[in-house]
Write a structure and sequence with these properties.
- The protein has 19 helices and 18 strands.
- The chain has helices at about 155-180, 200-210, 215-225, 245, 255-265, 330-370, 375-380, 385-400, 405-410, 415-425, 435-440, 450-475, 475-480, 485-495, 515-535, 540, 565-570, 575-590, 610-635, and strands at about 1-10, 20-30, 30, 35, 50-55, 65-70, 80-90, 95-105, 110-115, 130, 140, 230, 265-270, 280, 285, 295-300, 305-310, 320.
- The strands form five sheets. Strands 2, 3, 4, 6 and 9 form a five-stranded antiparallel β-sheet that branches. It has a five-stranded antiparallel β-sheet with strand order 12-13-16-17-18. A four-stranded antiparallel β-sheet has the order 5-1-7-8, with no helix packed on it.
Length: about 650
């Protein structure tokens, strides 16, 4: 009898172990082993256990092709998460690793290939596309997270923490509302400080002190939660009649608006996409939105500052242009309205649509079309962890007809869908690549644009990593073209996932390695760095609610001289809305206790030495980026650390 040494590793999360029967069969080119029950004295397959067994074969099996695992119920059903199986041949030798990293549910049989094997004994979750709504990317066919396969669900610790933190935030919210005044307006801006209990952060407190200052407004356009809107203004829009005389007092000495336009120092943020979006009704009261245009100037001494704001797309007597030398309350209210539009755009477009929903397309197509041993599956899997469940929860709890947005956000209900549909119509594949995005917006020379600098460094590191990994498995362009599973995968992405978006610009076939590398870099960059840039700072910028209000309860001002503090307080969110905005942005923006940082791969899908070398180089590059960012921020009063690699999650999990 030939005796093989088999090692089986059970998952490390809670409830990963099982008391069910586990059988193994080794299959080689020359035959297969006995079907062997894995049973040692004592308990087998406990959480985190690595158990060793002997498996016999009446004759040499030759090169091993696969390991067949079977789970059968013993008394009660008990699911099992298997990390991997290793097999050491008779007489010693190099052990082969068979990555699994999946749940075995019910009476089930699973066949897994060795980690370096390129062909496909597949295990693919049965996933179907559905349209949550027309005019946005398709998603997984699951009404709630309970409909998802166990392999893509939160583990029990993640689920407990997610639900527990939400309950904690809502409890504090309830205490605040009881302690203050439910549903009432604040008396003055200082009253908002009464919400700063345990839920606060150093940046949120800094924001509270500096939010009225023009330089801080400009800083957030560069490094806040929506840093992708600002664009160079070469010529003033026809519907934004700003004259040189209007802004002369905001410019440096001995210059003019025309000179600064030609010099490339004038920038624009245009919220035209907000124009005419349906507004919410909260507790029977209408809410309001605006579609502002904001002109900014890169001042040689003051940095980027706003110099003119128009709160609508159609100029006229009722749509005045607000200026820094206007009455202070009028200028402050104009900036508040811009920041209110910023909340809608960053939450629904920059965050939800351009990271969560976009990455979900890659999740579904990967589960549908790629076997678990495919190198692209193994490359993407760690960057798709938990994304399907958090998106399902978002659709049922956040942006549903009765979700949190409907309760507190001015575009809640119909408006959020209209806004997303408008953005999706003009979404382009190229805009997801940061180097092209900054060039297209003319934002390549702005000073102190930390988001740009850090995201480009991360893009280069991710692109180099992906290129190295792909080169391990695809030697030439024809290898890509002739991979039928890969071609079916990209076709599913382009024709099913990103449906009805003619300007997107993604081909339904991959013609060479370069195209594959770029596509995978987009997927990984979006699920890591881009999501971190928009998600991780949302509590910092939104906790002081006047800085980024979720809704406005009064129409935009039509007379600059008529703006009063009472008008501002009647416009800003009331006590209940303020508390809920703070609670939900804390819940969604806080660091996750089970976070896996970018570049860390606890699930070792790749076993080849060449692949491990590429991963090691990637980690070294991320470490260098980390050191650069820390050095750059040393001593800064307002540090930018959202793209610190150690603070970027490997996937969208929140």
């Amino acid at each position: 009898m030939e005796e093989y040494k088999v090692t089986v590793a059970t998952g490390t999360s809670e409830y990963s172990g099982t008391n069910n029967y586990i059988y193994v069969t080794l299959v080689g080119e020359n035959g297969q082993s006995e079907r062997t029950i894995l049973d040692n004295p004592g308990l087998d397959f406990c959480r985190g256990a690595v158990d060793e067994y002997k498996v016999c074969s009446p004759a040499p099996l030759g090169p091993l092709l696969l390991v067949r695992l079977e789970k059968q119920r013993y008394w009660v059903e008990d699911n099992w998460f298997c990390r991997y199986v290793t097999v050491e041949p008779p007489g010693g030798g190099i052990a082969l690793t068979f990555p699994c990293y999946r749940w075995l549910i019910g009476d089930v049989k699973v066949e897994i290939r060795e980690g370096t094997e390129p062909s496909s004994y597949s295990y693919v979750c049965l996933s179907r596309w559905t349209a949550w709504a027309s005019g946005i990317p398709k998603c997984i066919d699951a009404k709630t997270e309970a409909d998802l396969h166990q392999d893509v669900r939160f583990d029990s610790e993640k689920r407990s923490d997610f639900e527990g933190s939400l309950h904690y935030a809502i409890l504090e919210l309830s205490l605040k509302k009881l302690a203050i005044r439910f549903g009432k307006s604040w008396d003055d801006l200082e009253d908002f400080k009464r919400c700063f209990w345990k839920l606060k952060s150093p940046i949120a407190e800094y924001c509270m002190e500096h939010w009225k200052e023009d330089w801080f407004f400009g800083y957030q356009c560069l490094n806040g939660s929506n840093p992708r809107m600002i664009q160079r203004c070469k010529e003033l829009p026809g519907n934004f009649p700003v004259s040189g005389d209007m802004v002369q007092g905001s410019l440096a000495p001995r210059t003019t608006l025309d000179k600064e336009l030609k010099a490339g120092n004038i920038y624009l943020i245009d919220y035209a996409i907000m124009d005419g979006v349906p507004t919410n009704v909260i507790r029977g009261k209408p809410q309001y939105i605006a579609a502002p245009l904001c002109l900014l100037y890169e001042h040689p001494d003051q940095g980027l500052i706003p110099i003119a704001i128009q709160l609508g797309q159609t100029p006229g007597l009722d749509t005045p242009i607000f200026l820094p030398n206007d009455p202070p309350l009028a200028w402050l209210l104009a900036k508040i309205w811009v920041r209110h539009s910023e909340f809608q755009v960053f939450q629904l477009l920059s965050h939800l649509l351009r990271t969560h929903l976009l990455v979900e397309v890659f999740c579904v197509a990967t589960l549908r079309q790629l076997p678990a041993v495919h190198p692209v599956y193994k490359l993407l899997a760690p960057h798709l962890r938990y994304t399907l469940e958090i998106n399902c929860r978002g659709r049922t709890q956040l942006v549903s007809a009765d979700g949190i947005f409907k309760r507190v956000v001015s575009t809640g209900g119909e408006g959020l869908l209209v806004l997303s549909q408008r953005e999706y119509k003009v979404l382009t594949y190229r805009s997801l690549q940061p180097c092209w995005d900054f060039q297209q917006r003319g934002a390549t020379t702005l000073k102190d644009y930390f988001y740009r600098e850090h995201s480009l460094m991360l893009w280069d590191a991710i692109h180099s990593f992906v290129s190295g990994m792909i080169s391990v498995y695809y030697q030439c362009d024809s290898d890509v073209v002739e991979d039928p599973e890969l071609q079916t995968w990209i076709k599913d992405i382009a024709e099913e996932g990103f449906v009805d978006v003619p300007t997107f610009g993604l081909s339904n076939e991959l013609k060479n390695k370069a195209e594959l590398v770029t596509l995978l870099s987009v997927a990984i960059f979006t699920s890591t760095a881009q999501h971190a840039a928009t998600n991780n700072g949302q509590f910092d910028w939104c906790a002081w609610v006047p800085n980024t209000p979720c809704t406005m309860r009064h129409p935009t001002p039509t007379d600059k001289d008529a703006v009063t503090m009472e008008m501002i307080m009647d416009s800003l969110p009331d006590v209940s809305q303020t508390c809920l905005e703070m609670a939900i942005t804390w819940h969604l923006g806080r660091p996750q206790p089970d976070a896996v940082p970018l570049g860390q791969y606890p699930e070792q899908y790749f076993t080849e030495p060449q692949a491990q070398e590429v991963i090691d180089r990637f980690r070294k590059e991320l470490k260098d980026i980390e050191e650069h960012i820390l050095s750059q921020n040393q001593g800064l009063e307002l540090p930018y650390l959202f793209l610190l690699p150690s603070r970027i999650e490997n996937s969208i999990t929140i």
